[in-house]
Amino acid sequence: MPTPSMEDYIEQIYNLIEEKGYARVSDIAEALSVHPSSVTKMVQKLDKDEYLVYEKYRGFSLTAKGKKIGKRLVFRHDLLEQFLKIIGVKDENIYKDVEGIEHHLSWDAIDRIGDLVQFFEEEPSRMEALAEIQRQNENAE
Ligand SMILES: [Mn+2]
How far does residue 89's CA lie from ligand 1's centre (Å)? Predict the structure, then answer.
């Protein structure tokens, strides 16, 4: 298993703080399916880089810098989920697929995907036209 990146950690810490008001090593380890010792190591690095403030035994809080990036990461994750849903990806695949691609796209690509999501949402007939193509392709298989 590849080591989850700093982005994954910041994203999960942001989500945990939003949901519960705090993030502990054990919560982060569970959210990312990693060993607590990996969390401790990464948290120290994130502390050093000023994304969060690490207080032993008390959990962490994100700095302004950490919050700002956390917010963008969660926005990106949610946008990509929306995008995959719109293009017809099965619900069961969406979370894993987003986790797989989210760190590898430029912010330019994210913004263009945002345009595309808007393009479909503004006019439901566009989604219907796409669904029609998908039905045709399914039937042709
Ligand atoms: Mn994610």
Answer: 17
User: 104-131: per-residue pLDDT in tens?
Assistant: 999 999 999 999 999 999 999 999 999 9
Distance 34 CA to ligand 1 centre (A): 15
Distance between CA 52 and CA 65 in Å, rounded?
A: 8
41 alpha carbon – ligand 1 mean position (Å): 20
CATH of 4-68, one of 3.30.9.10, 1.25.40.10, 3.10.20.740, 1.10.10.10: 1.10.10.10
Specify whether the CB–CB gap between 6 and 46 falls below 8 A.
yes
Annotated binding residue 8: yes
Dist. CA 49–CA 78, nearest whole Å:
25
Q: Any idea which architecture 74-140 has in CATH?
A: Orthogonal Bundle (1.10)
Listed in order, strand segments (DSSP E) in 56-129 are 59-62
Whole-prediction pTM: 0.85
User: For 16-46, how does the pLDDT look when each residue is reduced to its tens digit (9 = 90+)?
Assistant: 999 988 888 999 999 999 999 999 999 999 9
